[in-house]
């Protein structure tokens, strides 16, 4: 019986979606008879530690959560934080006549639906309900036309999950042992990190080249107007027919890589400019070509992330968070898609708006069709577009802030995709003349005019390079003809230097991963988030900068797990996984080859074992064998990088440092390297500066009162001064004496602080006096700066010197004022960044309790590693605020329920027998042994979650 006929007969239907927001929206479209509840994401997954694995499993299964010896069977457990929700779903299902599994229509959503069915064990009819937009028509259509669960999609997701678990849980412990605890490796995250590291290596190896050319301003002698300028600017192209070298002609080593070009240095360029001063120039040729530009395809996941980064300053993660809200509230179609296809309904809606907003002249005769270009594109989704059969304009949505801006971007792109081409003309003018020294010089100028803007009226795509010229930029040249005489108003010599390859931004890294066919669009945001959170990469402005730690990690992986971070191998794995999803290969033989090696694939011919390798010889090696041979990995070697002059950069447990010579040998030097330093900035000269700085303990002199030596030290939490107590001073017990210690002020350093200043610091806290009620007031220097303390009432001081100079009267005056909430509120901003494009409020940088942060008065975002007050740009400030808004308000920690007290029954007499006592001891011993084993296994896996 179909769900439509069931609905007609009445009954109660349970619809399960993934998120509460989606549940709320859908409930309004279904009406009575339907109960809509959320699973709140995955309800079941592989165990996160051995403690979650049922006791019947032993050995490797407890560690991995996957039974590698029995066809890689996964061990699934209900997430601890989802048990209450599962109980609720079971209760609702018990009262229902039908179950609709309405999770997202992709691999992950299909897997969630399957897990729900496996855990809930429904005894009523089950339907798989799918939709790609949350509108009334789409939801009601989905209810009327359900389908069966797609087990092939579920198997594909399960294979990926198992593969990522094996990769992460086997390789990550190698990093813990050889680099640092808490690190992780992953099938795509490690490759993404390698890309960022390789780009930095290119920057380190890069050698700049200097080259010069000439720029000429030429006049037609006519009075100009906007449509026909009187002059044009042209660049020197050839001298005596030989092309003048430009940046593209030099290699990364700073040497010319192009033959038969003229390399001008400053002297030659200036001499040529002088020689051309009185030259008569004329137009040698005018080449005109028609210009045509077609609109961009509608957004898919990656192009949306790229454009939101370029135009809105959103990181990939923030983009997906905002898009998720727009989707769940019914404003856009599903945001995880590889497709650029629009449905007939969407095309009609877009064409209608083109006519309405821009006129019939901007509408092409036939609808535009965009074919998918992404290899192995997943799922039958549409492109990302406004939802419904009539697109709401941004003004009609009622949206605000980040959601408004992202919706507007999607709406403009979708409408523009159904508009006419932009047309115009492109012109190249060649201008020549003979210099005083007889050399022939030819200049070129290029122009572009747009006669019909077409789709550009609605939308123009951004660029990763901030200096790039956008499509709608016009360059008008004077109307000249071959043979026309031109006067040189000015000829200047211009010097240039080649630049190292630009670092990746989130947008360009997403583009690179997609072009290399590594990973999937739906995972890119989480991958970039992972490498940022792990400390492998940090941001400077919008650029992704690898940390020294990531150099050590990538070095280890390249040398000992080369295939796992090989770009082609990772892309082939993606192909193999897609072949499994299409039923062209089998998961178990493929996993056996990957984990155990060539000998691991068993089974009769045609079972899929051969298919698993895609016919690529031994391209799937034995992961298990790789991770068992750790003796060949020299931890010191993989974390050491030569700088020059005998200096080595090492990645240590507490951060990077430079070192010269061997420890405990004469002449040994060592100095910490700032954690937020970009690796390409660590030159030999800078390393020498670091090593030349004084380090260790600085003896300042003897305290005239105690006779103890006072020293200055650079500690883990900053510079400080302390006294050296006599060796016989008791250090423990009730007579123990602790040395006086005090942190240095921000204006002080260990190598310049004096004995007098140190004694003043160690005299704190200072008693200022007592108030009228006899409560003592003290001046103290704390973690967050100088302050006054009276009982439990603290008041911040604006100047560190006040600690020694403030009087009782001044202190009482401060306490007479209402207490200011937040130290930074009374301080002037450290920097002004401009007006936030979302809140339209001024953005400033302030000094807060936990360091500098940006704020627009409503949202606060702490500066990250790589950001500084001096270098932060307005765009970076807006990006930090956008990411913070996308996260939403911080969740309050749930209060722990008080422990239940077990009531003890009093008995008149003890009836415990020896046998019972012995049995209890035996049971207790077994429990202890099991607990110890569980704890030991959990300890190995709980330090970090490798996936």
Automatic annotation (TrEMBL):
Stretches with biased composition (Basic residues): 887-909
Enzyme class: isomerase
Keywords: DNA-binding, Isomerase, Magnesium, Metal-binding, Topoisomerase
Ranges where the record places region Disordered: 882-947
Residues in Toprim domain copies: 12-135
Keyword Transmembrane helix tagged: no
Low complexity compositional bias, start-end: 910-947
The enzyme's E.C. designation: 5.6.2.1
Stretches assigned to the Topo IA-type catalytic domain: 150-602
Spans annotated as Interaction with DNA: 184-189
GO MF terms, alphabetically ordered: DNA topoisomerase type I (single strand cut, ATP-independent) activity
Ranges annotated as spanning the membrane: none
Site residues by UniProt (Interaction with DNA): 42, 160-161, 164, 169, 176, 336, 534
Known partners and oligomeric status: Monomer.
HAMAP family named in the record: Topoisom_1_prok (MF_00952)
NCBIfam families in alphabetical order: topA_bact (TIGR01051)
Protein name listed in UniProt: DNA topoisomerase 1
Source organism of the structure: Streptomyces roseicoloratus
């Amino acid at each position: 019986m179909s769900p439509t006929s069931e609905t007609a007969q009445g009954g109660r239907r349970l619809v399960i979606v993934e998120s509460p927001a989606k549940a709320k929206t859908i409930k309004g479209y279904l009406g009575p008879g339907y109960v809509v509840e959320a699973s709140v994401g995955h309800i079941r997954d592989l165990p996160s530690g051995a403690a979650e694995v049922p006791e019947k499993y032993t050995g490797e299964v407890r560690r991995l959560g996957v039974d590698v010896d029995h066809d890689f069977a996964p061990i699934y457990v209900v997430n601890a934080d989802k048990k209450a929700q599962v109980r609720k779903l079971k209760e609702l299902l018990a009262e229902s006549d039908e179950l609709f599994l309405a999770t997202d229509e992709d691999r992950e959503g299909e897997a969630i639906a399957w897990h729900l069915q496996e855990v809930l064990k429904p005894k009523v009819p089950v339907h798989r309900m799918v939709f790609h937009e949350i509108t009334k028509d789409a939801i009601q259509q989905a209810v009327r036309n359900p389908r069966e669960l797609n087990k092939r999609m579920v198997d594909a997701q399960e294979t990926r999950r198992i593969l990522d678990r094996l990769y992460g849980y086997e390789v990550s412990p190698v990093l813990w042992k050889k680099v640092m605890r808490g690190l992780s490796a992953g099938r795509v995250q490690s490759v993404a990190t390698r890309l960022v590291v390789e780009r930095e290596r290119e920057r380190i190896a890069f050698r700049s080249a200097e080259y010069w050319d000439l720029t000429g301003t030429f006049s037609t002698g006519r009075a100009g107007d906007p449509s026909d300028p009187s002059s044009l600017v042209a660049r020197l192209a050839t001298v005596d027919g030989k092309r003048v070298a430009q940046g593209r002609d030099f290699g990364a080593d700073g040497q010319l890589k192009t033959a038969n070009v003229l390399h001008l240095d400053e002297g030659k360029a200036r001499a040529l400019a002088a020689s051309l001063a009185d030259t008569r120039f004329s137009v040698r040729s005018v080449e005109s070509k028609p210009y045509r530009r077609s609109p961009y395809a509608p957004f898919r996941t990656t192009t949306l992330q790229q454009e939101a980064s370029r135009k809105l300053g959103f990181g990939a993660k923030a983009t997906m968070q905002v898009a998720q809200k727009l989707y769940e509230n019914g404003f856009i179609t599903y945001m995880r898609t590889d497709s650029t296809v629009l449905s007939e309904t969407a095309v009609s809606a877009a064409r209608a708006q083109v006519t309405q907003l821009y006129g019939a002249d901007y509408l092409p005769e036939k609808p535009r069709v965009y074919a998918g270009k992404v290899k192995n594109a997943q799922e039958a989704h549409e492109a990302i577009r406004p939802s419904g059969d009539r697109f709401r304009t941004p003004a009609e949505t009622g949206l605000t802030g980040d959601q408004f801006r992202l919706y507007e971007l999607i709406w403009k792109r979708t409408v523009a995709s159904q508009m006419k081409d932009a047309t115009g003309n492109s012109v190249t003018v060649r201008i020549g003349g003979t210099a005083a020294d007889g050399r022939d010089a030819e200049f070129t100028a290029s122009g572009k005019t747009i006669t019909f803007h077409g789709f550009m009226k609605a939308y123009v795509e951004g660029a990763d390079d901030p200096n790039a010229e956008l499509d709608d930029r016009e360059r008008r040249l004077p109307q000249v003809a071959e043979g026309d005489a031109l006067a040189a108003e000015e000829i200047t010599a211009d010097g240039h230097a080649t630049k190292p390859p630009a670092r990746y931004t989130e947008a360009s890294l997403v583009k690179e991963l997609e072009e290399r066919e590594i990973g999937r669009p739906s995972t890119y945001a989480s991958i970039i988030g992972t490498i940022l959170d792990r400390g492998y990469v940090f941001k400077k402005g919008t650029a992704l900068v690898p940390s020294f730690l990531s150099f050590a990690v990538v070095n280890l992986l390249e040398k000992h797990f080369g295939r796992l971070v090989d770009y082609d191998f990772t892309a082939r794995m993606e192909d193999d996984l897609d072949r499994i999803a299409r039923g062209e290969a089998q998961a178990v033989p493929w996993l056996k080859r990957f984990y155990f090696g060539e000998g691991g694939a068993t089974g009769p011919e045609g079972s899929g074992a051969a298919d698993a390798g895609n016919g690529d010889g031994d391209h799937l090696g034995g992961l298990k064998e790789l991770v068992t041979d750790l003796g060949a990995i020299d931890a010191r070697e993989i974390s050491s990088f030569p700088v020059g002059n005998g200096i080595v950069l090492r990645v240590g447990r507490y951060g990077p440092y430079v070192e010269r010579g061997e420890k405990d040998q004469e002449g040994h030097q060592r100095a910490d390297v700032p954690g937020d330093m970009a690796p390409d900035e660590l030159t030999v000269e800078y390393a020498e500066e670091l090593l030349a700085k004084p380090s260790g303990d600085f003896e300042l002199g003897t305290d005239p009162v105690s006779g103890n030596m006072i020293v200055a030290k650079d500690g883990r939490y900053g510079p400080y001064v302390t006294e050296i107590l006599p060796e016989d001073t008791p250090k423990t017990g009730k007579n123990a004496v602790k040395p006086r210690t005090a942190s240095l002020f921000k204006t002080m350093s260990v190598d310049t602080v004096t004995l007098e200043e140190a004694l003043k610091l160690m005299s704190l806290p200072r008693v200022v006096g007592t108030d009228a009620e006899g409560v003592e007031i003290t001046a103290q220097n704390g973690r967050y700066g100088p302050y006054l303390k009276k009982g439990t009432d603290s008041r911040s001081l604006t100047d560190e010197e006040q600690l020694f100079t403030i009087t009782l009267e001044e202190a009482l005056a401060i306490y007479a004022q209402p207490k200011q909430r937040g130290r930074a509120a009374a301080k002037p901003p450290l920097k002004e960044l401009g007006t936030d494009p979302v809140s339209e409020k001024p953005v400033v940088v302030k000094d807060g309790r936990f360091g500098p942060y940006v704020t627009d008065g409503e949202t606060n975002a702490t500066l990250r590693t790589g950001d500084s007050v001096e270098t932060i740009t307005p765009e970076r400030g807006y990006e930090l605020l956008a990411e913070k808004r996308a996260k939403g308000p911080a969740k309050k920690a749930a209060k722990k329920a008080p422990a239940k007290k077990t009531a003890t029954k009093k008995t008149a007499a003890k009836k415990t027998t020896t046998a019972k006592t012995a049995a209890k001891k035996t049971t207790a011993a077994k429990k202890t042994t099991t607990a110890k084993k569980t704890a030991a296994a959990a300890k190995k896996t709980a330090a970090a979650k490798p996936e």
